[in-house]
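Teaching note: in complex prediction, the entire set of molecules is handled at once rather than each chain in isolation. The prompt given to students was simply: 'Predict the structure of this complex.' The entities are:
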Amino acid sequence: MHLLINGKDHDDLPDGLTVATLIAHLGLPERKIAVERNREVVPKSAYAETVLETNDVLEIIHFIGGG
Amino acid sequence: MPQSIKDPLIIAGREFQSRLIIGTGKFKDYKENAAALEAAGGEMVTVAIRRVNLDKPDAPLLMDSIDPKTTTYLPNTAGCFTGDDAVRTLRLARELGGWNLVKLEVLSNVHLYPDMAETLASLKLLVADGFDVMVYCTDDPVYCQKLEEAGACAIMPLAAPIGSGLGLLNPTNIRLVKEAVSVPVIVDAGLGTASEAAAAMELGVDGIIANTAIAGAKDPIRMARAFKHGVIAGREAFLAGRIERKQYAVPSSPMTGLIK
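The expected output is the structure of the full assembly:
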């Protein structure tokens, strides 16, 4: 399936990914990021049960230095 | 200040011993940032929220150098130009961090000056969504009152344009802001060196935020320590109460009992 993640197209992702399996697929530290799906925050507690659909728009963020 | 003297800064029910908040931008790396925080004696840092770089999933993380369990993170809305952007960004920050104390800044394209109409609108959205909001703002005491009425838990007027290091340009307005509101007032942005932090604290404000002044100094760690002492000195001087200014000399030594 296709996802738009942080403004970039990601094609050929396996079908049936959940937020949790996507995070693992991307190699990201789950406890140090937050995920928005189609402009709604995905609670950490719902990562495993949130099944992604093709063309979902995701934002994956973390804290960086700022003033 | 000796530890025995209790003079906590209280923001939205949270108690802090340090009145110096430091930023986490512009440091050489997060390690230097963490060392500066320690030298500053700080308990709070401002942080930004940005997209993860998916090409570098192993890049160093701020959270690995500055532990959010022991240091209060103040997620900011830098880069947001509307209330909707700010709410969206801080909802993500809240899910990531698990806390609701945040720094709202809605800037304009005019020298990064705060857009106060948009700031006030954003504040109302955030308060309705359950956030405790510290608000970066202009030094207009009327607008600062409106922010307090809308539920701001701290008012954070600028000393000078962001990153300019011009220092405390309008001490009269900062004092008027402090007198106009009852929530803590924290001078944010524009300070250049420790004496300016002291001067701001002597006006009676409750705290200081410094980022560029520390991160951009030749020795950021030493400047962090200087700011710590500046903030403490200014606070102590304010609490002690300065003497009245007099137009003429008044001797410090007695004029009686002189030898003849």
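Point out the following to students. The radius of gyration of chain B is 20 Å. Chain B has one domain: 3-240.
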